[in-house]
Fold each of these.
Amino acid sequence: NNDKDPYLRHGGVFALAQIDDMSALLAAAKDSSAAARMGVLLALRELRRPEVAMFLHDADMRLVIEAARAINDAQIEAAQPELASMLGSVTLPQPVILRALNANFRLGGQVNADRVAAFAARGDAPESLRVEAIKFLKEWAKPRGIDEVVGIWRPYTPATRDPAIAKNAAQPVLASIVTSGPDSVRLAGIDLESALGLEDSGVLHDLVVNSAT
């Protein structure tokens, strides 16, 4: 089919998922055809299998995007750590980075918050995603029960988290965030400082009196 007919592809994916032959699927995951690998990926999504994470490193970027969507949007929890680890790159497509940010937010540990803070401080990262990263840090301790990417009800366990995690992650990078970069990023950084109780009066004073910033 070579992805020419989405209806035929859907039928094939449905059949593969119903057959549920993992050894055959994993063998086909290495097929030279990107269309065949896509069929395997979508079948693994239907089966909610963590092995779908292997496609995060596929040579075809379409499969990388689809794998990120599968893990986040279909709630394949066992594959979340692999998706979260993708946040180190700013050259990935934005749908992948957004879901990697969300995976770190959902996992909620210190290493996850550190990744999000480091991304927020990167001058080479997309502006809108830097703002999103800062928003995640602001809501870290009390996340809403709605998935930030797809908007579905997806409550967190536990419902509240240690506020020190976001503070520890944000403190080393906040000064650089609020003094450089696009206005939207700096404003979000100032808001984060206030929300976390990390106001640096020296930095904020310089922002007021220095017309160059």
Note: The chain has a mean pLDDT of 93.
Amino acid sequence: LCSQFFCEGFLLPCRKWANEHGLAFTGHMDKDNTAMGIMQGGNFHILRSLRCMDIPGIDVIWRHIFPGQPGVTCAATDWPGETATNGFFPRYASSAAAQIGADASVTESMGVYGDGVTYEQMRYVYGFQAIRGVNIFNQMLITYDRRNYMMAGEKPAFREDHACHADLKTFNEYLERLSYVTSVGKRVCDTALYFPVRDIWAGVRAEEIADEFEKVGMALEAKQIDFDILDDDILENAEELKQGEIRIGKACYKRIVLPPCEQLSEQSKANLAVFEANGGVVCTLDEVQSPTVIANGTEKLQLMQRKTETQDIYCLFNGDTKTEECTLDLGGKTGYWINITDGTIEPLTMENGLMKVTLQSGETGAVCITQNEPALK
């Protein structure tokens, strides 16, 4: 009821007003970096809330994404509980976008990251989100004034007196390329992880269930599985079940991964049974295999596939703190390597039908399988 009131009494009227005035409605929820945020952040149901927006968003603050090991307290702050979790939470925004039929989701990033944050670290933060489907970047922070107290604000503050201001244009051009490559065509994502909202609402084992959910999501990523997050709202109203698919908006799920949960609704159970009986896959983490396109790679490597009428694009992100090499099996297909960092495009170099890719920490690159050289500006 609280979630329904929040959506119908606040978010949907805001969207209606914005649309009536020629604007798209966007934003993010509080404490959206953790599954328990649906209670602690006051939105009660993050996916339901984000689906009320034209452009669902995520907030990346307090160095919640940062190069390093998850769980290490951020050097920039001693704020209790604020750590570089490097969790999969950007998927809340990209999942909601796909489910409402939108092509874009947005991030507000770098708030309270400190003036000492480097462009290399920022590349990591944005690439981490782009590979998980977020493709519009709202960069904090341009201060409201150059004088008085308003110039303090949050850090970093990208003013003329910032030590790295001269390179801001170059970095913004990189973000343009990153946004373009991770937006072109349609994202290919047929796997969804069930979000046990009802279990968290029940409160009996809320934190334990939320923790298990996040562990399963992290383990899927360690297997290089691209996935969305879905909930009972979608399962209870699912269409195309007799085709072994769950369709909503631009999303089409053929495999549902269930984490430990106890409060799956009866209607969700019934629809999942129909879905599975007609060829859909309902499984646990242990039954999920890594994609065959990655012949060799570390668990820090993330993969996202996009598709147009004439090309397949495989975006890759290195989430490790060191340079990594991986091997791709493209089935003998040819195409181009897109270096998003410097904007260069080169024909693929294959050895015995395989392609070796070297990515620096936080680097995002893409393989484009096509007959014609892709345009990247």
Note: Confidence is low (pLDDT under 50) at residues 72-81.
Amino acid sequence: MSSAPQSPNATQVLRASQAAPTRLLQYELVRKVGAGAMGAVYLARDTDLSRDVAIKLVHPTWAREEDRLQTEERFLREARSAARLNHPNVAVVYQVGRDAGVTFIAMEWIAGTDLGQAVGRGPLPWREATAAIRDAAAALVAAHAQGLVHRD
């Protein structure tokens, strides 16, 4: 058992820190829609282009500076990788940036229910389940064709 202190993951940091900004550049954050290993995703409004977008952000409050820098670099690599993909089952990356001390990715907003929520309501009809698996597999094939490996 190690007694060395462990750095918090992004979800812990997001819960422990102050609220996310309400605006990043031209994006007005509307509501949080999810959280992952590196940060959180928000529905936002692009006020310049009058459209909804998804904003994925990394919160800057890390226990150690080197952890924050490594996480932000990994996050930016993810943005660059996703931007290389051009596939109907992969969200389009519009912009990557930093504002108000927060590194973020602005992406295509895809309205709907996530798979976890859909399955949580009960088993999916087989046609719906098959289509979801087919679409996810097609996106992974496109990523692998570009030399990318999805970490999740």
Note: The chain is about 35% helix and 25% strand.
Amino acid sequence: SQGEVADEPLIQLDEMNCVTMIENALAISRAANEEEILSSLLKIRYSGLKFDFSHRNHFFVDDWIKNNEKKGVVSLLRLPGDTLWTRTMNRRYFYSLNGLDTTSIANTPSKLWVLPREKAIPYLDSLRGDEMLGIAFVGKLDWLWVTHTGLLLLNKEETPTLRHASSLRKMVADQLITDYLQEQKGVQA
């Protein structure tokens, strides 16, 4: 039923979407041992101590990132040339899609620093290092900032690689970030 945690496994490493892939990776990396993985995941995925639909971090920018910033799990990086975008998140629409009562749900203002594609491609092509960062891709839907997300794998020699749960390939895939951004030019979210 709506509002409850589903019976299927909360951690499923053989099937995942882009957000659950990042949640799984973070939960595993933050757990001291195998027994701590589930509690680590629950802290990342949900906003409080209730683990149900209404307490899940559904909105990636306004829920997932903000709640996980407060917990010290993630932090947003400002990038050279980024621009502040604003929009009103249509939370009522999202909750109505899931068959929930929307009478107490308010649409909320939201802000996000975004690096436009024409600046992102040359910036990311030149980025080098020896670390892994999260990356999110912004669409045009008024009820959803982030349309896809993944891990950006940096190295000292080559253009960064995007590791993401690809719905087209039906698997976790690696590809150069610049190739991914070029492929997405014609995609409208």
Note: The first strand starts at residue 83 and ends at 89.
